[in-house]
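Consider a typical record:
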Amino acid sequence: MNSIAGTIDRMKTRDRDQYTGGYLDNYIGHRARLGVIIPSTNTAVEYDCQRLIPRGVTWHFSRFMIEHVDLSDDDNFIRFLEMLRQTIGASIESVKTCKPDHVMLGMSAETFWGGIKGNDGFVDRIQEMVGEGTGLTTGANAVLSALETLDVAGNTGKTIAVITPYQPVGDHNVRMFFEDAGYTVKHVAGLRCENAHDAIALLPDHRVMEVVRQVDGDDVDAIIQVGTNLSTATYFPTLEKYLEKPVLPINVATCWHALRSCGVLDQFDQFGRLFEQH
C-alpha cells in the first residue's frame, strides 16, 4: 500500500476453499479475517466494527495495554504515545496467531505523528511486525484513500477541516500530516480531552456537532474526524447529507479501507457516501 495515496489493490480476494460437494461448509471468515489492534482504553472501535459485518467476514480484536491514560496537556499526551509504542508489539503478536488476512490499527494519533515522513516510518515498523504477507490499514492512510475516493484528493487545491480529541501537540501533527499530503487545512479543532477513555468515548454528540458547525464553511471541501475512541459513525452520515460534502469519521474510513483491501466490496446504507457508493 502506498502510504501517501493509500492505494487499495481491488484485485485481492480472500475466498477460502471451504466447500464440500459444492456447498460452503464453514462460514467463519471464509472471505476475510481482519485483525484489529486497539488501545486497552478504547470502547468505540469494536462498537463501530460490529455494525459493519459483511457475510463471511470476521473481526478479531487485540488490545495493547495503556497504563498512562492522562492526556490533560502536551507532556502527558507525548508520554501516552511513548508508552503506547512499548506495548503495541505484544498485541500484534497476539492477533497474528489467528492468521488474519489483514490487520487494521484502531488507533490514530501515532499514525499522524511527524507528518507524511513520520507516518511512513511508523507504517514500515508496524508492517515489519505484522509481516509482509499480511495487509495493513492505518488511520492516516485510510483517511487519505477515502478522501481520494470521495473526490477530495490531495494536491488538487482542496481545503479540509479536522476535528480531534487531542491536545495542541496532537493537533499540530495532524495539521502537518494533511498539509504534507497536499491539503489546505483551514481548521484543526482539538477538543482537548483529558484522558484516553471516557473523556473521549463519552463526548456528547451535540458538542461534536457544534464543532462541525464551527469549522464548516463554503470554502471547506471535507470535514474529517480523527481519534478512534470517538465514534461519530451514527450521525456524521446524516450531517454529510445536510452539508452536501464528505463528513468522514476515521473509524468508517479504516473499516472501509480494510474491507476493500481484502476484496470485500459490500455496501452499507447509513454509513455515508463512502460505504453507500464505493
Remarks:
- The two ends are 18 Å apart (CA to CA).
- The chain has one domain: 19-277.
- Residues 1-5 have pLDDT under 50 and may be disordered.
